[in-house]
UniProtKB/TrEMBL annotation:
It comes from the Bacteria. InterPro entries: Pra-immunoreactive, RDD. Keywords: Cell membrane, Membrane, Transmembrane, Transmembrane helix. Its main location: membrane. This is RDD family protein.
Length: 221
């Protein structure tokens, strides 16, 4: 595009006066969504571990005698499986864990699962569901709030993924990216500023849609 279009300005004028969501609905929606992500990760980890056990069984290898599963305070699921064999030691680790000699284990499987845990699943959840939900994830739907773009009438797939990645940017700032809710005049956190979005109440969004679909007819002269 070689010429600037003022359509964004028109959309901003239509957004004028829309009610922004409060802190607690946004916080509760965020917690609800991460609880769902945790359940999804647990399901994936369980399915992966069951598949690994099945492969070992088909290969005729013995089932490990000791299995320990724990959930870290950060919400990451890590599973450590150890087996002492008479001839050789055996160790299997999923996620952050310790090797038999007490050192951190960072094999290819662990690194791949960390990428899935830290990036792939959150981006798919917060990005795809926000896009398909037209600005609402399950948590936001329960709390009656919605994400809206201040540049476009509809959230695109890229803007939704960009906002999902913005959660990581907010966390990397030591949580300050979330604190910006109280500092920004329009209650925008780091992910909102990155994706050019605002979070509004569902009631005000529906009022806006009704106003746009039923424009006032000027009085005839």
């Amino acid at each position: 595009m070689r010429r600037f279009s003022a359509k964004e300005t028109e959309w901003l004028l239509e957004l004028d006066g829309i009610e922004l969501a409060n802190f607690w609905p946004r916080a509760f929606a965020f917690v609800i969504d991460w609880m769902i992500v945790g359940i999804l990760l647990s399901t994936v980890a369980t399915a992966g571990f069951a598949t690994w056990l099945g492969i070992r069984h088909l290969q005729g290898k013995p089932t490990p005698d000791f299995m320990q599963m724990a959930t870290e305070s950060s919400g990451k699921l890590h599973t450590t499986v150890e087996k002492a064999d008479a001839k050789q030691g055996f160790h299997f680790n999923i996620g952050p864990g310790k090797s038999p000699n007490g050192e951190e284990a960072h094999g290819p499987l662990e690194q791949a699962l960390e990428v899935v845990n830290d990036i792939v699943v959150p981006v798919l959840y917060f990005g795809v569901l926000l896009w398909k939900g037209h600005g609402r994830t399950p948590g936001k739907r329960l709390m009656n709030i919605r994400v809206m773009s201040i540049a476009h009438r509809h959230l695109s797939f890229w803007h939704s993924v960009e906002r999902a990645l913005g959660y990581g940017a907010a966390a990397l700032e030591g949580g300050f990216g979330f604190v910006q809710f109280f500092l920004h005049p329009y209650r925008r956190c780091a992910q909102d500023r990155l994706a050019e979005t605002i979070v509004v109440t569902e009631r005000s969004y529906q009022d806006l849609q009704h106003r746009l679909s039923h424009p006032l007819i000027p009085d005839e002269k």
